[in-house]
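Reviewers of the previous submission asked for a worked example of the structure-prediction workflow described in the proposal, so we include one complete record here. The input consisted solely of the amino acid sequence. No template or homolog information was supplied to the procedure at any stage.
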Amino acid sequence: MSTLSIKTTIEDALSYRSLIDFCMRNDIWLRRTGSQLIEGIEPNDLDYVADDPSGKVEEWLNTSGWIRGGSEREEEEFTSYKQGQYNVIICHTREYFTKYLMATELLVKLQPKTKQERIDIFDTVIGTKNNPETMVPF
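From that input alone, the workflow returned the following C-alpha cells.
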C-alpha cells in the first residue's frame, strides 16, 4: 500500500474519527477505497465507502459539517461527501455497496496506476459501463 503523506487538519481528522464512531455505534460498514490502496501512488485524499440504505450516515454527515458533492459522478445509487482530505461515498443499497467492495478488491489485486484505469474498473464492476457501444472491442 502507498505511504500516506496527506496533510490534514486536526479538525478534519476529529470529524473523520467521529464518523467512524457513529458508524460503529450504528453497525454501519465503512471501508477504505480508492488510490490509498494502490502501491506506488501517493493519494491526494482518503476515500471511504459506507453501506447506508437507512440514510443514517447521510443524515449525520449533513448535520456534522461535511460538504455534499465530493464526486463529479454522483448517481441515484450513491451520494458523496467531503471534509478536508476525507471523502465518503454513501451507498444507498446493499447491492451497490457490495459491487463497490468488489471493485475495490479488484483495485487492490490489479494495482492500476492511472486514475482512468481505476475509474474503468469501477464502471465495469458496478455496471455503469454495460452499454456495448462504450465497451472496448476485443
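The radius of gyration is 15 Å. We consider this example representative of the routine output the project will generate in years two and three.
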